[in-house]
Every structure is written in structure tokens, then in C-alpha cells.
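Quick one, C-alpha cells below. Sequence please?
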């Protein structure tokens, strides 16, 4: 019997192990059903590792291609989900290490290594201002700190922040507006205390 011409409704009723066995036998529809069942979990797993929606989607596609090519190596069909997660983990590590473009460091280290043509008094004033801003940010609530850090220090766009915070762009704009006002108030308070 040719299993690739079966009704897709019949495939949805099969267990994962049954689908794996069929996929190992060359049934592309069975593998397609496995893809449908596991896609969202694999994309979520990829997202937690690469932290970029486009990269995660691309990684998930690569994972399924790898899984389709290597499915014959899976000895325990019931372990398909765990096996797939291992592939995600390995491929995410490879992708992150291969694509690492910059090494993060704290602002003080970065400032200390930069060459500047500014006068020493301008540099000192600039550092005092930066320290005052950091100090004021530290006194804000966690949500304000995360919002300001994501936008100004990490350079995230509103869309990236919307994805990261799982909130609509309008909410992110409001959070930024409120956080800026609170930061300005903290800066004023700091200025008055000096």
C-alpha cells in the first residue's frame, strides 16, 4: 500500500511514533505531519537561543531539513521530539558561533579603549554625565530600566522591542515615553541634590 496517498485526516490520527516509522519508510506526508505538529515548538526553541524571529524561523527550516535527511538514524521513534530539540540546540550553537559579529563589553571598558580628540575637561564632564544617567536609570523601576536599556543601549527597534517584550508597538512607545519622563525627573532630582 502506498502511504503517501492516504487522506491527511488519517495522518492526524496517528501517533508520533507511527508517523516517524512511516517517514523513515519514505512517506513525505508523514514527515509533513510531523513538521506541522512540531514547527511552533521548534521555532520557539530556536527563538530562545538566537533571539531573532527571522533567524529562528530560518533555523527551524534548517532543523527540519536536517531531520528529514537523518530520520533513518533515529532508533527510538517515540523520542522524535527530544531528538529534534537536540538538533535545534546543536544547530543554534553553530549558527550563533558562526554569526557572532561583535563582543559585548561594559560601557566603562569601551570608553577606556576609545581614542578621543576631546579636551580632558570635556571627557571628564562627559563621563560624569554618563555616570549620572546610569545612576538615574538604576533608580528607575525594572520595566523602565529594561525599556530604556533595550532602546538606547542595545539599539533595538520598536519592532524588536515589541517582539522581545511581547507587547504591541503602541505599548512600547508609551513605555518609552513614560520611562523618558521618569528618567528626566530622576536627573532633575539628582541635579538638585548636587
Amino acid at each position: 500500500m502506498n502511504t503517501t496517498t492516504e487522506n491527511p485526516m488519517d495522518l492526524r490520527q496517528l501517533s508520533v511514533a507511527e508517523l516517524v516509522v512511516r517517514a523513515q519508510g519514505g512517506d513525505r506526508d508523514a514527515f509533513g505531519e510531523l513538521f506541522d505538529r512540531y514547527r511552533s515548538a521548534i521555532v520557539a526553541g530556536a527563538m530562545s537561543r538566537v533571539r531573532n524571529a527571522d533567524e529562528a524561523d530560518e533555523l527551524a527550516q534548517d532543523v527540519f531539513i536536517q531531520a528529514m535527511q537523518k530520520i533513518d538514524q533515529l532508533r527510538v521513534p517515540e523520542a522524535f521530539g527530544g531528538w529534534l530539540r537536540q538538533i535545534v540546540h546543536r544547530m543554534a550553537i553553530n549558527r550563533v558561533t558562526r554569526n557572532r559579529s561583535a563582543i559585548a563589553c561594559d560601557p566603562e571598558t569601551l570608553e577606556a579603549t576609545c581614542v578621543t580628540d576631546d579636551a580632558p575637561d570635556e571627557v571628564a564632564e562627559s563621563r560624569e554625565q554618563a555616570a549620572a544617567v546610569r545612576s538615574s536609570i538604576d533608580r528607575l523601576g525594572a520595566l523602565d530600566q529594561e525599556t530604556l536599556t533595550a532602546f538606547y543601549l542595545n539599539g533595538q527597534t520598536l519592532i524588536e522591542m515589541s517582539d522581545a517584550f511581547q507587547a504591541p508597538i503602541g505599548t512600547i512607545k508609551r513605555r518609552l515615553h513614560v520611562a523618558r519622563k521618569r528618567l528626566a525627573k530622576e536627573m532633575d532630582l539628582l541635579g538638585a541634590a548636587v
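Confidence is low (pLDDT under 50) at residues 1-5. The radius of gyration is 25 Å.
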